[in-house]
UniProtKB/TrEMBL annotation, chains A, B:
It comes from the Bacteria. Residues 209-220 have a biased composition (Basic and acidic residues). InterPro entries: Pyridox_Oxase-rel, Split_barrel_FMN-bd. SUPFAM superfamilies: FMN-binding split barrel. This is Pyridoxamine 5'-phosphate oxidase family protein.
């Protein structure tokens, strides 16, 4: 199994028993998850602060960047875009799998899978790579959908920035299962356990301005998430 | 209805039609959501980069900070903690409500609710406020749970940092419903619509080292999320 390349920036300094240096599990998480949280550093009026925004994304494991490529897109007019190109970015993808009720507040926790990718974002300028990345982002939402759509117009392409972040510097943490209590707390007889959580899809909702049947790709996606 | 106090940092520069300056909806989202993504700015070896981590949180609308208080906690040994106290932080809370399949890739979108809070985190040092914040974080996961648990030990308290972020500088964006397509795309007859998504809980799973019945607070929480 391939290994991630953790660095001091992506290696947790605590709870290293939860650090799972396992590229296959990282890619499986990135495949499961539907949104990422993009962090950038903003400099405004001499003050530095982070900004964190939810974004759509897609991964090309065969992408041109070392370790594969994570693609993001946004409006060329978005304020965060310039910031995201001026320093490294952090892209974090988290799936919440459960609430962990221990016998002490201290040992309460969550079951989750979380990937943290840090790197310098590259503004994708090659037309073929841009088109490929935008198709991947649509197909990450609904596999097969991009092939059923018209090509983007010049105006749409001019309004869209595509960023590529290398998957080289990435780490993953996860927690699963029962709480871990102190032996003296187990003896108190307080109930402990966890509440599993998962995301489900409802049936596709057809837009009011069409009378077409739900296509197979959309039906399959809803069923797979269902 | 109270209004948020948006600033240039929390006011979206794009898609302002989606910006919902509505405090009540912001607080409802913070009540619904179970995790936040905390962004901090890290300075390491002369390089500045953001870090974004999933965290548990709770809100005290009557908290001591302007606009109310958002509480976070972490290990005092965590590397991100010092960074989070050195510059402003960004706390982003997102609930994904659906996948929006338009007739063009460009108009594909997500249905979501997302709150962005930017501010200077305060390290909570008052013992009463620390205890209150830690109880709120447990009760945000499972309402009523903290009252059934022993008090934290001195050692646990010494290992736990509690951060307070004012809810003053906060914004919310949301999207719901059908895609918005160009008129010429509607005419093409491609199906459009959305796939609703939601989080559900399974039945509580009792830890292997207890034979107690699932308590009412845990059962109610699972049912409410169910």
């Amino acid at each position: 199994m391939e290994q991630l390349s953790p660095t001091p920036r992506t290696t947790g300094t605590r709870e290293s028993e939860r650090a799972v240096a396992d590229r296959r599990r990282l890619l499986a998480l990135l495949d499961d998850a539907l949104i990422a949280h993009l962090g950038a550093v903003v400099q405004r009026d001499g003050v530095t602060h982070p900004v964190v925004l939810p974004v759509a994304f897609a991964v090309d494991v065969e992408g041109p960047d070392e370790g594969g490529t994570l693609y993001l897109h946004g409006s060329t007019g978005a304020g965060w875009l310039r910031s995201a190109l001026e320093t490294d970015v952090c892209v974090t993808v988290t799936e919440l799998d459960g609430l962990v009720a221990a016998r002490s507040g201290f040992n309460h926790s969550m079951n989750y899978r979380s990937a943290v990718v840090i790197g310098r974002a590259r503004l994708v300028e090659d037309a073929d790579e841009r088109g490929h990345a935008l198709d991947l982002i649509v197909d990450h939402m609904i596999p097969g959908r991009s092939a059923t759509l018209r090509a983007p117009t010049r105006k749409e392409l001019a309004a869209t920035a595509v960023l590529a972040v290398p998957l080289r510097e990435a780490s993953m943490k996860e927690r699963a299962g029962a709480p871990e209590d102190e032996p003296e707390d187990v003896a108190t007889g307080v109930w402990a356990g966890h509440i599993p959580l998962r995301r489900i899809a409802g049936p596709p909702v057809t837009a009011p301005d069409t009378d077409r049947e739900v296509p197979d790709d959309v039906r399959s996606r809803a069923a797979a998430l269902g």
